[in-house]
Specification:
By secondary structure, the protein is mainly alpha-helical. It has 3 domains: 113 residues, no CATH class; 104 residues, Type II secretion system (T2SS), domain F (Receptor-associated Protein); 67 residues. 83% of the residues lie in helices and 0% in strands. 21% of the residues are buried.
């Protein structure tokens, strides 16, 4: 089963793929040099959104939020270019290797989907860094308030003293306050940009204080203690569930290792999978079920951790 392409059409496909790869690399260099995080922030939706009128708009908004929350400093357009580049490279490599369209299509789909778990992992790591910095930031606000500073001045001080990445978010809050936005609105925007329970509690605490008053320093001190307790609980939970995660990874790797061993020792057993469409369908189904099982296990662990 050969490619139904003539030489001219194959040249056009190669040209388009090469152009896509070059464009993705140029966009990545632009973001790294000129700061793509600024572009991502400009496209970030910081206010509650109305119901999406189309599914595509909702998916694009979720994709922009995902890229912003990775903290990589790249724009959504650059991330989309990297995804297309991954799909074209993997699909093209398999298509050239097997000289058949089905492996090329499977490689294209896998290559397009492969960066998404990487972005999700990076997002989880970035949010974890923000969570680790939040108690110290709340302590800094508490000390500034006790020293007689206003809440606006305390947030401006936090924007100067807190290191990245949380310091960037407080800097944005300080700029919004300088432009006349209220403290409640600025902190609510912080809670939307950093979707964690701790930031929502922090925003609610400041909003309630603005409306009802009270001892803000004591409230911030107790909030910092609560956040540290939650971080300690999550660390203990991750330590206790490390065995379950390792078992899931080992179980999932058994199939891959068996496939590699058979390919090296007795490749004739696996050749029928690559010579017939039903074989590719079975391999794709096996990979899909493996990925779904892993996502299910880690989703249950994450839900238990966030409970």
């Amino acid at each position: 089963m050969q490619f139904p392409f003539d030489q001219s059409l194959a040249s056009v496909v190669v040209f388009v793929a090469g152009g896509t790869v070059c464009a993705a690399l140029l966009l990545l260099m632009r973001d790294l040099v000129f700061g793509g995080r600024r572009l991502a922030r400009q496209q970030m939706l910081v206010r509650p959104l109305p119901p999406y009128d189309t599914v595509s708009r909702g998916m694009m908004a979720d994709f922009r939020r995902l890229i912003y929350e990775t903290g990589l400093g790249i724009s959504p357009l650059t991330a989309l270019g990297l995804i297309l580049m991954s799909g074209l490279l993997l699909g093209g490599s398999l298509g050239i290797w097997f000289d058949e369209p089905l492996p090329a299509f499977v490689g294209l789909v896998i290559g397009v989907l492969l960066p998404l778990p990487c972005f999700a992992w990076r997002r989880a790591r970035y949010l974890r860094q923000l969570q680790e910095q939040l108690p110290d930031a709340v302590d800094l606000l508490m000390r500034a308030v006790r020293a007689g500073e206003s809440l606006d001045q305390a947030i401006a001080l936090a924007a100067e003293e807190i290191p990245k990445p949380l310091g960037l978010e407080f800097q944005r809050c300080a700029r919004q306050l300088d432009m006349g936005l209220s403290v409640a609105s600025a902190v609510q925007g912080l809670a939307q940009r950093v979707p964690m329970l701790e930031t929502r509690i922090f925003a609610a605490t400041l909003a309630v204080h603005r409306r009802a008053g009270g001892n803000l320093a004591t409230a911030l001190e107790r909030l910092a203690s609560v956040i540290r307790d939650r971080i300690s609980y999550r660390r203990q939970f991750r330590a206790a569930s490390a065995g379950g995660r390792m078992a899931a990874l080992l179980i999932s790797s058994v199939g891959v290792l068996a496939f590699v061993v058979l390919w090296i020792v007795q490749p004739e057993y696996l050749k029928p999978f690559f010579e017939q469409p039903i074989g590719w369908a079975l391999l794709g189904t096996a990979v899909m079920l493996q990925v779904v099982g892993l996502l299910w296990v880690f989703a249950m662990l994450r839900n238990s951790e966030e409970a």
